[in-house]
Design goal:
93 residues, alpha+beta, HU Protein, Chain A, 2 domains, three-stranded antiparallel sheet, two-stranded antiparallel sheet, elongated
C-alpha cells in the first residue's frame, strides 16, 4: 500500500483533532515550501527524517527503447532523497 497525501492529511487531522481543511492547507504549504526551496537550488533538510536534494544531470547519450534509435538526452534537474540515520534505523528494525 502506498501512503498518499490524503492519508497524511487524515492521519494529522485525527492525531491533532484538527479539521481536514486546515490540515490540508498545512500539508500543501509544507510541500510548496519544499518545492520552492528545490526550485531555487537549495536543499530541503527535515531533521530526523532526511534531505531532499536537487541535482543537475549532464547531457548524455541514450536510446529510444521503442525504436532502438540512439539519441542525445538534454540536461535536466532531478530530485533525490536521502533518509537520515534515524529514519534508516527505524525502517531496518
Amino acid at each position: 500500500m502506498t501512503l498518499t497525501k490524503v492519508d497524511i492529511v487524515e492521519a494529522i487531522a485525527e492525531q491533532n483533532i484538527l479539521p481536514k481543511t486546515k490540515t490540508t492547507d498545512m500539508v500543501e504549504t509544507l510541500l510548496e515550501i519544499i518545492k520552492k526551496s528545490l526550485e531555487s537550488g537549495e536543499d530541503a533538510l527535515i531533521s530526523c527524517f532526511g534531505i531532499f536534494c536537487g541535482k543537475k544531470k549532464k547531457e548524455r547519450r541514450g536510446r529510444n527503447p521503442a525504436t532502438g534509435e540512439d539519441m542525445i538526452l538534454a540536461p535536466r534537474k532531478i530530485v533525490t532523497f536521502k533518509g537520515s540515520w534515524k529514519l534508516k534505523n527505524k525502517v531496518n528494525k
